[in-house]
Design a protein that fits this description.
Elements lengths: L1 H19 L2 H16 L2 H8 L5 H12 L5 H12 L6 H15 L2 E8 L5 H15 L2 E8 L7 E5 L2 E4 L2 H18 L1
Helix pairs in contact: 1-6, 2-6, 4-5
């Protein structure tokens, strides 16, 4: 349900941005707002606190962002707070930025590896994905020592898992099947 709510707000805001010809401007502002809000845990506690009136939350957001972002974002804050949807603000901003990237033919690949990958390795992965997907690809990396070695890539709903951990899990399953068959 929550994903549906944030998607509806984001879709409406994307339509507005498109109609106004301000997709890039609104994208930059959405990223700025998201990073400002989500990086501050105390701010989020205040924004989500049930005993603080929506008017006070809006006044706080307006004071922080007025003059730094467009009036359309200030109006979005107002609408979402009046509807008690402050818990969906970050998700709405994420949905909106995802819609903009999709509109521009840009996708994000999440690359997991046991050790930090070099710039050359990341560049090669990015180039190969771009060619195969026929899209511009942004890379987000994360190290996970439990993978032991290799790389796992998640992009556009697909998972490419070339990790040693996966290979060991598959080997284990095959050995269990052989053992059960005897």
């Amino acid at each position: 349900m929550a994903k549906l709510v944030s998607r509806r707000y984001a879709d409406a805001f994307f339509s507005l941005a498109s109609d106004m010809g301000k997709i890039d401007e609104f994208y930059d502002e959405a990223v700025f707002i998201y990073e400002s809000i989500s990086s501050n845990g105390e701010f989020m506690k205040v924004l989500l606190h049930p005993d603080i009136l929506s008017e006070n939350k809006f006044a706080m957001l307006e004071k922080i962002f007025k003059g730094k972002v467009s009036d359309e974002f200030i109006s979005l804050f107002s609408l979402m707070l009046k509807k008690n949807r402050e818990s969906e603000l970050c998700a709405t901003l994420e949905e909106f930025t995802d819609m903009v990237l999709k509109h521009k033919g840009i996708t994000t690949a999440f690359v997991y590896s046991a050790a930090k990958l070099s710039e050359e390795q990341l560049s090669a992965i990015k180039e190969k994905l771009s060619v195969n997907l026929n899209k511009q690809v942004n890379i987000k990396t994360e190290t996970d020592s439990s993978l032991i070695g290799g790389v796992k890539i998640c992009v556009d709903g697909h998972v490419i898992d070339g990790t040693i951990k996966k290979q060991l899990d598959e080997l284990k399953q095959n050995l269990l099947k052989i053992r059960l068959a005897q």
